[in-house]
Fold this sequence. Notes:
Rossmann fold, 10 strands
Amino acid sequence: MRARFISGTLATALLVAATIVNVPPATAVKAPAIISLGDSYISGEAGRWRGNGNYPYGSRYGTDLAAYNCNRAETSCSYDPKLIYGTSAAECDRSIGAEITHVEKVRVNREVFRITPVNRLNIACSGATTTDVTKNSFKGEAPQVQQLRNYASSRDIKLVVLSIGGNDIGFGDIIKSCVTAFTLYYYCNTSLAGPVKQRITALYPKVRDTVRAVQDVMRNAGYRNGSYRMVVQSYPVPMPAGKDNRYPETYKQRFEEGGCPIYNVDADWARNDVLPDLASTIRRAAGATAAEYLELRNALEGHEVCAKGVSQSNSGDTLGHPHAKRNSEWIRWIGGLAQGYVQESLHPNAYGQEQLGACLGHMASRSKNTFDCRIGSV
């Protein structure tokens, strides 16, 4: 009797073991994610700053989010840019408040996916060109499409957002030339207009091919058309029209006080010619690749550096009680006025990135192939 019991138990155990061996392993569920690629305007450059405050010490009137260990009056602080940019400080400058971090959900076809903060991925890098996205190692990192390939296999990517082209046309050098022109009393647009126009014309195939390279990575990773969204965005205008600049065209007021040392005619040229031409080129590239397009030129209108109707932070503002967003500049001033990195100049600051994130979030949560984001539309 005992022998039969042992034999039956053993047979049952063997049967169970055989059944377990033949059960296919459970498929791991990938978390839905979103990811940003490209350059400084989406990496989060200037995210260290919440407005602009013309004071060299302490929390800079409550604008320096890298300030810590401040005294009670916030006239003396320690600084650590890594609090905002992490290990990418002084390199890619991926800020903790970058555009992508503000997007909470994405609609793909009729389904809405909630995106947790840890799955709002940012591999964009300040200074990147189209070839740094597609081919080159840059600032010690693999090409961005290679990084995307790794994330595409470990996450369920639902939204890819790309900002690219500004460094290909040398936008930073254009700004430097116009600042130099201001200090030496001549206009930069007279010599730059022709060459910049040519650079923008040459940019179209570069942006188009970059979008295609991103789409190829997604396709090769097993993503079908329609299983995720691809958005290409333009650039926000960083300075107001000349007539809307609140500072006279003097060195003391535009350079030392305002941080916008560019003549009205040069600012108008950038606003009315360069950025519209650049946006048109990016939009054409998006259309040629069936990507979606996010127009951001007017997204920060009225809150550009030195714009009338807003102001810098002042001595009554602190980290705990900052200058109100609605009254602040959303673009980092030029040169930093002895604060932070020069490369942060004319980029959306923490307030600006929050607003651009609202633009992207509005588009992502709705079925929109194009969206022209403006103040009041989000």
